[in-house]
Design goal:
The complex is a heterodimer of chains A (about 325) and B (about 400).
Chain A lengths: L19 H23 L1 H25 L10 H11 L7 H16 L12 H12 L1 H4 L2 E2 L14 E2 L2 H6 L8 H6 L11 H13 L6 H20 L7 H6 L3 H8 L10 H21 L6 H18 L13 H5 L1
Antiparallel strand pairs in A: 1-2
Chain B lengths: L1 E2 L9 E2 L6 E2 L4 E4 L8 E2 L4 E10 L5 E9 L22 H10 L12 H5 L9 E6 L8 H8 L1 H15 L3 E7 L3 H11 L5 E5 L8 H9 L15 E5 H13 L5 E8 L6 E6 L4 H7 L7 E6 L6 E2 L13 E6 H4 L12 H5 L6 H9 L3 H6 L10 H5 L6 H19 L1
Parallel strand pairs in B: 8-9, 8-11, 9-10, 12-16
Antiparallel strand pairs in B: 1-7, 2-4, 3-6, 4-5, 6-7, 12-13, 14-15, 14-16
Helix pairs in contact in B: 1-4, 3-5, 4-7, 11-14
Classes of the chains: A mainly alpha (about 325), B alpha/beta (about 400).
Chain lengths: ~325, ~400
């Protein structure tokens, strides 16, 4: 009897075919151009750091799920890979392997699994890991190798150099070549330097509808506007907007880290508020803080405010703006 | 087999008994209230039995079983195909006729038509909006109807206009049916009706969404109705049925049903009489495909899966869909990653993820505060959820329970 096989289920009977896995692997794909650029500039070191970070993140998640929670393991849903990649992109390319592993333990073990795993973490795991390392290992985390094309023989004994933001923080106004910054030929963390590669990945994520325009535009727009005001007041003391957007982790943060679904607001309006907050805090820290870069701190601070933003920025309910029915108007 | 509850509201009361002979179009169950509808026989023959059985809704309901003998119609029904454009009846008579003929909304919700057309005292109907959007994806029944019975639908519009006193008539059609838009626009000219092409977007055919799209007004939260913003909405299928009732004296006992599925040999739109078992329709499109895993009565987003293929077509059966085995299995449920896709998908501006969580912890007060009753159960949130969470199911549970609590408080 064919009829006995008929499934009974509630509607809807169709699905968009989107899945958590597809979303996570899309982010991985979007990060590949930036990864290629860092391999070009940092050589095998870039591959080494990224692989260690990904493997460590997956391993920590697996160990916790298997032995502490004794439940299903979900390391192949892609979220640990994304965290691993982002963590690697946020550290210098010559970082020792054991520091990376500590970062992974903090990112996955403390920032993610403690709160109940994927979907429940209030803070972006990769950033928590990065900030932990930055505070615990300040010298290793701020010694950046100077980018050199892979075939350059000098790359073998890595030369370390300053980052544009580091110089700015020390009060030096440097005359950087924006074209170099755009391509990624500047000092910085592993995956944050190449604006062009990050933008390509960002456009891919927009097309795939993994992210919406709200957060990146709000973050970068606010940073540009805020720094433009400062620059207008005193161009010799403050850097110009383009410098702020191209330098440091602005693009990586705005496109990939701040947009993390789990830790960002649910509505477009909320995302704009959140993005503006990140932009303001970043420039504040960069300009007047003791750290040269403020993106990570800005995102963490705004992560903490997300539940409040969600409560405040409700979507517009259907029918709310309409004038009440005529009888009520008469009263 | 004809169920007596084919509409929203009170079920009808059978007026025939076992052994009675009936003709096509004869009244067999009488409306029992204002929000209720008459049921007519779709065949001629002898009443075999009246008993409770599982019908298309999946629940046990009283059904009237008729043994078919010949095909003898009531003489009062005008069976000629001629177009009758002159409207002789008064508004009062039109409403009475529509009620008598048991016309309900044929989009799927099956709300009795005469109720919608009775404009309450003190309210005014400015716009009559005719829904040519096709309520759900996959369905093409209304599309065919607009192509094949264009003129009849136009006359139907004028009839409803007379009954409601509407100032303007707008027919909304989605852009993916350019042939229907062209044909309807052409025909609409001489009737003074506006045809408005609309963006293709589910659920554009929802009453509230359609009013928003055509006249840019939003209905406030329930219990407000379209008439509160000066609108009356009818489906093209219902409009056609109203034409047939008023001009041809034909009760609603047959309708166009889309029968389709990915592995169906020859998908079709079938003019089917109410009471026809779904299995007959399926046979007409080449039989049930081997790989069928689920059969749905209605559309893919809001239709109901049926347990048996012997259940009948009702006034609200807009489609019969056969899903492949691979399409019938729900995806594994993962953790919510708070992506917000359900929030942007919700056509009512609700937060489905929040409603789901509140329903899970059974916080019904908060559910009401978050306006769970606004939900039209369109299914968009479940459709879009990358974690495969059946959000709509949770919300339905919450909505039903909140409704029950509110009723018990009264």
């Amino acid at each position: 009897m064919a009829e006995n096989r008929l499934a009974i289920a509630m509607s809807p009977h169709v699905h968009s075919n989107e899945s958590v896995k597809k979303i996570m692997y899309s982010v991985v794909i979007a990060l590949l151009p930036a990864f290629c650029v860092s391999v070009y500039f940092f050589g095998l070191n870039a591959i080494r750091v990224t692989l260690i970070s990904i493997v460590a993140c997956m391993a920590v998640e697996w160990l916790i799920q298997k032995f502490l929670l004794k439940g299903k393991t979900t390391i192949f849903d892609g979220s640990a890979i994304v965290t691993g990649m982002l963590l690697a992109f946020n550290v210098p390319a010559n970082l020792d392997w054991w520091i990376i592993v500590i970062g992974a333990i903090v990112a996955i073990g403390i920032a993610k699994m403690t709160f109940g795993g994927l979907g429940n973490n209030p803070f972006n795991p990769a950033i928590v890991g990065r900030v932990f390392l930055l505070i615990s290992f300040p010298s290793q985390m701020t010694t950046w190798p100077t980018p050199q094309p892979i075939w350059d023989i000098k790359a073998l004994d890595a030369v370390t150099g300053p980052t544009p933001l580091g110089l700015l923080n020390e009060g030096q106004m440097v005359d950087y070549n924006y074209m170099d910054m755009f391509i990624g030929n500047m000092g910085g963390s592993l995956g944050e330097m190449s604006a062009i590669a990050l933008l390509i990945g960002g456009i891919f994520l927009l097309i795939r509808k993994v992210i919406t325009w709200h957060i990146p535009v709000a973050v970068l727009g606010t940073m540009a506007a805020f720094s433009a005001i400062l620059w207008g007041v005193d161009p010799t003391k403050y850097a110009d907007p383009l410098f702020h957007i191209l330098a440091g982790g602005a693009l990586l943060g705005a496109i990939y880290m701040a947009t993390d679904m789990v830790t960002s607001p649910m509505t477009g309006k909320g995302m704009l508020v959140y993005g503006v907050g990140i932009g303001i805090i970043t420039i504040l820290i960069r300009t007047w803080g003791s750290y040269p870069e403020g993106m990570s701190f800005a995102i963490l601070i705004m992560n903490a405010l997300v539940p409040l933003i969600n409560n405040w920025c409700k979507p517009k309910r259907f029918g709310e703006v309409v004038k009440p029915p005529k009888e009520e108007v008469k009263k | 087999m004809i169920p007596i509850a084919q509409h929203i509201g009170a079920p009808a009361e059978p007026v025939v008994a076992k052994g009675d002979t009936v003709k096509v179009g004869q009244l067999i169950a009488k409306s029992t209230g204002f929000v209720s509808a008459n049921i007519h026989s779709s065949v001629s023959g002898t009443v075999a039995k009246i008993e409770k059985t599982i019908d298309t809704s999946g629940y046990k309901n009283t059904c009237i079983f008729i043994n078919v003998e010949g095909d003898e119609w009531l003489e009062t029904i005008d069976r000629t195909p001629d177009l009758k454009t002159e409207i002789t009846m008064s508004a009062e008579e039109i409403r009475a006729k529509i009620a008598e003929c048991g016309i309900v909304g044929t989009g799927g919700a099956t709300f009795p038509a005469h109720v919608k057309l009775s404009v309450p005292q003190g309210k005014k109907c400015e716009h009559l909006i005719i829904n040519g959007v096709e309520c759900e994806p996959y369905l093409t029944a209304d599309h065919r109807l607009m192509l094949e019975h264009t003129e009849e639908i136009m006359v139907g519009c004028k009839i409803i206009q007379k009954a409601t006193g509407a100032e303007k008539i707008i027919i909304g059609i989605e852009n993916n049916k350019p042939d229907a838009i062209a044909k309807m626009t052409e025909a609409a000219k001489k009737y003074g009706i506006t045809v408005m092409p609309l963006k293709v977007k589910y659920p554009q055919g929802g009453e509230k969404q359609l009013i928003k799209a055509t006249v840019n007004r939003e209905i406030p939260a329930p219990p407000a109705l379209p008439i509160d913003v000066g609108c009356v909405v009818q489906n093209v299928g219902s409009t056609f049925a109203i034409y047939e009732a008023v001009q041809k004296n034909k009760p609603l006992f047959e309708r166009v049903v889309t029968v389709t599925g990915k592995s169906v040999k020859s998908p079709k739109n079938i003019l089917a009489r109410v009471g026809t078992p779904l299995s007959h329709l399926i046979a007409a499109v080449g039989g049930l495909p081997e790989d069928t895993g689920k059969v749905v009565n209605g559309g893919p987003m809001m239709g109901k899966a049926v347990k048996s293929l012997e259940v009948p077509v009702t006034k609200g059966t807009s489609g019969v869909l056969m899903f492949k085995q691979s399409e019938s299995v729900r995806m594994e449920e993962n953790a919510c990653i708070r992506c917000g896709k359900c929030v942007s998908a919700c056509c009512m501006g609700l937060e489905p993820y929040l409603l789901k969580n509140l329903a899970k912890i059974r916080d019904f007060d908060a559910l009401k505060e978050e306006r769970v009753l606004d939900c039209i159960e369109c299914g968009s949130c479940s459709f879009t959820c990358p974690a495969g969470i059946p959000i709509t199911d949770y919300i339905r549970y919450g909505k039903a329970t909140v409704t029950k609590i509110l009723r018990s408080k009264k």
